[in-house]
TrEMBL record:
Places the protein is found: Cell membrane
Domain of life: Bacteria
Name of this chain's protein: Uncharacterized membrane-anchored protein YitT (DUF2179 family)
InterPro entries for this protein: DUF2179, N-reg_PII/ATP_PRibTrfase_C, UPF0750_membrane, YitT
Membrane-spanning segments: 12-30, 56-74, 81-100, 106-127, 148-168
Keywords: Cell membrane, Membrane, Transmembrane, Transmembrane helix
Coiled-coil ranges per UniProt: none
Membrane-protein topology: Multi-pass membrane protein
Any GO CC annotation of this UniProt entry: plasma membrane
Record's keyword annotation contains NADP: no
Occurrences of domain DUF2179 (ranges): 223-277
Provenance organism: Dielma fastidiosa
Length: 294
């Protein structure tokens, strides 16, 4: 089967992501018994009860979750995650051996924060390819498939429940330290997923000077806009509502233009988490007529 460059890059991201996850677990989480999320957190939480070697438990659960995720999420997921299922335990055991006589930090707070950052970055890179590390990130992927709840939020909830499990076998203080890892991991998952995207705002504008504002958006900002039809809740009058998406750096100019056209204009400004299409993910130098702007 021929692989194009995009597939090869996906496999590279899967390997890189799994290496980072394994490094976070072997370098920060397990040596300091951090009640983080994921399989590492479960292995730490259950060790006082069953006394199963953490690396062994992680390996077994990794393969178990892989089989479950393959059934629910399909063939494409299974192919990409199969690489994770092999790579993650391999990297984990190699890095554990390499760091056997070394400890990156003995401070549990630093271990929790840095472990969470590195782990979240690794998981996020793998998520970008539509795959999984084959562990506790599979349940969030399944829930996301049917609910569209942000993956970062689902990972944080799942990891939070894992930390709560550790309260029964460790202590509240250990769980509080573990929450630092959960928060930093969730934050980095979101950052990794949105990396490379444009920082944008979606703006609704209600004004009596719609035509003038539209002209300025087109000529001064070189942005398109959409006219929505609205009805005033109190007056019952029909109103035009301008919807425009711009880059964050363009907002001050837009605000100035709108005020100059209509000081009484009503604006609703929101951060747009993801924007795709002409002017954002397509070539910014191509205008709507296919001409190149210098």
């Amino acid at each position: 089967m021929k692989l194009d460059k995009s597939h090869l890059f996906d496999y590279f991201l899967v390997l890189a992501g799994n290496f980072l996850v394994a490094f976070a677990v072997a370098g920060f989480i397990l040596p300091n018994n951090i009640l983080s999320g994921g399989l590492a957190g479960i292995s730490v939480a259950l060790y006082p009860v069953f006394h199963i070697d953490p690396e062994l438990l992680i390996t077994v659960l990794t393969f178990g979750f892989f089989l479950f995720g393959s059934v629910v999420l399909g063939k494409s997921f299974a192919v990409k995650t199969a690489l994770s299922t092999i790579a993650y335990p391999f990297f984990l055991n190699i890095i554990t051996l390499f760091l056997a006589d070394r400890q990156l930090t003995a401070n549990p707070i630093l271990a929790s924060l840095y472990g969470g950052v590195v782990l979240g970055l690794g998981v996020g890179l793998v998520f970008r390819t539509g795959a999984s590390t084959g562990g506790m990130d599979i349940p969030p992927l399944i829930v996301h498939k049917y609910t569209n709840i942000p993956l970062g939020t689902l990972v944080m909830i799942t990891d939070g429940l894992t930390v709560l499990l550790g309260i029964a076998t460790h202590s509240v203080e250990a769980a509080l330290i573990g929450i630092l890892s959960v928060w930093s991991s969730s934050y980095m998952v979101d950052k990794a997923l949105s990396f490379g995207g444009q920082s944008t705002k979606s703006i609704f504008i209600i004004s009596e000077h719609t035509k003038e504002i539209l002209d300025m958006i087109h000529t001064e900002l070189d942005r398109g806009a959409t006219i929505l039809k609205g009805v005033g809740g109190y007056s019952g009058e029909e109103k035009d509502v301008i919807l425009v998406v711009i880059m964050n750096k363009q907002y001050p100019m837009l605000n100035k233009l709108v005020i100059s056209a209509d000081p009484n204009a009503f604006m609703i400004v929101e951060d747009a988490k993801e924007v795709k299409g002409n002017g954002f993910t397509m070539n910014l130098e191509e205008n709507r007529n296919g001409l190149i702007k210098k």
